Amino acid sequence: MGRRVLLSWSSGKDSAWTLHVLRRQAIDVVGLLTTFNGAFDRVAMHAVRSGLVAAQAAATGLPLWSVPLPWPCSNSEYERLMSGVLQRAVAARITHVAFGDLFLEDIREYRVGQLAPTGIEPLFPLWCSPRETPALARAMLDGGLKAVVTCVDPNKLPATFAGRAYDATMLADLPPGIDPCGERGEFHTFCFDGPMFSQPIAVRVGEILSRDGFSFADILPDPA
Question: Does this model's pTM top 0.85?
C-alpha cells in the first residue's frame, strides 16, 4: 500500500506550502488535520475563523479533520483528544502525518514521540536549518503563495505587523534576528492563495486587537 498522508494544517503559509511540496512529489494527501479553540471556534494561535479553514479545505479538494479543543486546554487533555484522532487515522489506513515544522528540534521530537505508539510515521517536508528559511520564504512567494499576518508576539516583533501582507516588503521590514518564516513564534499567518488551492479565498483584514499578550488581526471573508 502506498503512503496515505494526513497533513497537520494550521491555516498558515508553512502548512499550505507543505501541501504543495507533497503534491509535487506525487504523495497522496488524504486530509487536513486542524485543532480549533472550541470556545472561540478559531485556530489556536493563528486565531483564524473555522469557516475560513473550511474554505481552504474546499479549495484544496481535501476533507477537513476538525478537532475542537476546550479552553483552557491542559496538555494531558490535548494528548487524550489527539490520541482519539490518531486512532481514527489508523482506522482510515493513514500511514503518515506531515508537519510544516522547519527547525525546532524539541517540537519535532514531540511529534515523533506522539506518533510512535500508533505505527503512523511523521513527515517533515520543509525541514531545514535557520540559515535556510530566508530562501524558503522567497521560494514560497516566488511560487505564488499569498498570506496575511494574523498574530504577532509583540515581545519579538512590533504589533503593527499584524494584518500585513506576507510579502517581500514585509520580509525586508523584519527586524534583525526575526525568522522570515516566524518559526520561533514571532508571527503566524493565514494563506489565502497559492498553487495548493484551486481558487483564492477572498478575505479582508478586520479589527486589530490585543489579547493574552498577543496582537491579532481578525481575518474576515470578503464576499465582494
Answer: yes
